[in-house]
Amino acid sequence: MTANFLIGLREGLEASLVVVLLMTYLVKTGRQSLIPRLWAGVALAIAVSLGFGALLTFGPRGLIFEAQEAIGGGLSIVAVALVTWMVFWMARTARSLGGELRSHVDKAADGAAWGLVLVAALAVGREGLETALFIWAAAQSTGASTLPLVGALLGLLAAAGLGYLLHRGVLKVNLGRFFTWTGVGLIIIAGGVLAYGVHDLQEAGIFPGLHSLAFDVSAAVPPSSWYGTLLKGTLNFSPATTWLEATVWLLYVIPVLFLYIRANRSPAAQPVRSPAAAVTAHP
Questions:
Q1: Side-chain half-sphere exposure of 179, counting CA atoms within 13 A
Q2: Please, which residues have CB within 8 angstroms of residue 162's CB and are 6 or more apart in sequence?
Q3: Which is more confident, 264 or 95?
Q4: Per the count of CB atoms within 10 A, which of 138, 162, 220, 268 is most buried?
């Protein structure tokens, strides 16, 4: 639940910042009449994301066990690839995000009547589809169905609340530091999702080594215990881990964390400004 709360909070806040930036820019440029189109695009993005989540949840049902494991494992690896790209993209482009969005708004406002709907749908929909896929993969890896969704929903609600407070100027948050540390957390969570995806592919017979264990601490950390559940829900820790799972986890988490921290320390990785400041700086 905790891991999914972090996913929902991080991805939801990114989407909220996009909406806040667009709304602030429309108000600053005297285009308040276009705000309903913005919300129409947001609603479209949410609907598509929910539909994608439903397809992931109910689509594989009815298939044989090996096929379900193969699909689940493959999608888990895709989810890890997307979230890895997302955290690096945010570290690299956060400085110019406001300018890119303003450029898209200007083109949409001067072009087709419903161009802004498409701008909002694409900007928010990208975050929504990534969120749906990664939450689904994380829920699959923990073996739970309700708690991960509750955690993700609470994270999204918290993100929406933070976005509103940022828009109203009530709350001041060091967004650069927030996204840096949540990015570190997501990389560790993604490592667990990746290891679980590999385990699924082992159960499907695609990868070997299903019964070759690197360690088995099930006696000390029973999966049904509260601490076993906590480790599984937050870090996707499996008491019985195969050599391939452990190897993949190490080969992913260590170099990706190193590259991510280095990217955030580089001169190009400037702090993320508040939405209002970003718009005011470029009227």
A1: 29
A2: 13, 16, 171, 173
A3: 264
A4: 138
